Every structure is written in structure tokens, then in C-alpha cells.
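Predict the 3D structure for this chain.
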Amino acid sequence: MKLMLYIFIFLFMLTSANVSNSTIIFEDNFDSHSDWFPQTELESCNNASCKSNVPGQWDYYRNDELWHPITDGPSFHPTMQISNENYYGASGKGYTQWNESNNGRAGDGWGADGVLSKDLGQGYNEIYVQIKVKFQPGFQWFYTQNNNAMVKMVRFYHWDRIGNPYQFFTNGHSSPIYVFDAVNSLWGFRQKHAIRCSPQATNYYCSQNYTLSKNFSGNTSFSNSLGDGNWHVLEWHGKMNSSPGVNDGVLEFWVDGNLEYFRSDIGFMEGGPSGLTWNIVGIGGNAFNLYAPESDKKEQWYAIDDVVISTNYIGPNYVIGGGSPPSQDTMPPAPPPSLW
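Done. Predicted structure below.
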């Protein structure tokens, strides 16, 4: 009888563990990585042939910068790097995004670009994305009455799995798309939720304007929110609308466990085809932020660590690999998943 009871308990624990672990699609704290950065100012990996160049279990990257440590000297930084220069916790490694103050290779104001992407292997109707982020102390912004300063940080989207996963706009291979920007402007430090709809060839910018820029709770400044020199947990939930023309897609955004943004009327798929899903997630991006003359070749960074992609809400206290959060970083309790 006891043997049967022990077997039952064992099977229950095993099943519970499998259920718990099944929500995690991908996670990476970068600690086990070798140091990595692109070796040239302009390079990318957008197909399986260059997989050996991509760090860890990530799948693609693109890099476009105007100065580089190998070609311009060791005082400069690569736009994207994995190293122990910035990391969350007592030790380890993290991902650092260096923003160059330049007008970009195209001269349109969008400066150096670096994106590291994970192919989810299959499509998901809804996903949760979590990162920890820290901005360089004294991170600078330049904005005017006509132009906001913007830094792209996270994106998730549907890729048609043809061509280049970084070919966007009406002639690209990706939609719908969600992009998160940190924005500073005359109206304060803001969060921008940019949405691009399908089909990309005819409706990339959506017939309805779903994109929203709003202040963080309490109308706080950059220095009193993400710019306070501490690590913060950012979380997103994206649920695809049920079919084209039905506006029931969901987008949620949390900062340190506090729900900052909620919307449940989004038509990510505004037109055909139906059945599109989220299948790729990227960190990093370019910036529109010429805070210093381009000739000065200035750089500044923000860092990302503990990337988790899941099918369920896990909350800001989740620790990759189990255990407890580092003692020096106290996080607020995680709220329950939104049922609105």
C-alpha cells in the first residue's frame, strides 16, 4: 500500500514539474555564453548557414553601426555584445546594447542598429516576454518639439519563414509586429507600443491607429523610473486576435510587477491570411537619439539580462534555473495574470 502511495506521489510530482516547466519556451541569462560581439560594422545572420556565428540558442542577428572596436580602436564598443560588463545579480554575464549618437547609415536619424532574435520554432497564439533591463547612469536623450527621442528594446512578430526575418515594411516578410520603444520628449518619459498589422503589403501601418505612447504610472521622469540606475523587470503579453477583422487581440505591459498598459481590442490581423501566430522575438534595436554631434562618436548603453519567453504569466520574481532572486534586488510581489 505504501509502495503504491509513493508511486502516486512520485508521478504527481513528476507531472506537476512537467506542467510547470512546459510554460517556458525559451530562457537565457547569458552566464554560460562565451564573450561575443559582431566582428564588423555591418553584418548579419538571417538563415541557417551562419548559425555557428550566433551566440547560444539564439537564431539570428543583425548589426549596423558606424564605428567599431576592431576597425576604429579599442576605445569604441560594438553595438551589441555579451560579456561580464553588465549583468544582473552578484556575478555572471549579460547583453549590452551600445547606442551610437549618429544619424544612421541611411541618414534618416535612426542610429546604430543591433538586434538579437530567437526563432520560437513554432507559432504561438499568445506569448509572454520578460527581460531585466538597466540603463547606463546618466543616459542622455535629445528631443525637440517636433521629434521625440526613442530607443527600441523588444519586438515580437509573425515571420512568414521566407526571405529575411529582418526585411520589414510593405515589401517585407513579417506581420503582425509589436515593437516596444522607450521614449523621452517634451511630454516626459514615456512607453511606446508600436503595432504593425497584416497583410504587410497593403495594411502594414494598420487601418486603425493602435500605436500608443503614454507616460509611465505617476508621470515619472526617466531618472525616477527606468533611468534610476537599477535593474527593472519588463514584461509583455501579446495574444493574437482570433481571426482577421475581429478586434479581440490583447496587449499587456508590466514594469516591476505593476500593470502599466492593457488593451484587448487590437486587430493584429486586420486582413487575410488567417491563423497567423507569434513565432519570433528580438531584443535590442536602433535608436532615434542624436544626443551628441556625430563627429564626437559618442556611445551609451542599456543592458538586458534574464530573457524569458513563456506561454503563461510567470511574474517578476521568476528566476532562471530555479532558486531565489538575488538578495540585493528586491522585487514587488507578482500580480495574478490579468483576466480582464
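The helical segments are 2-21, 69-72, 200-203.
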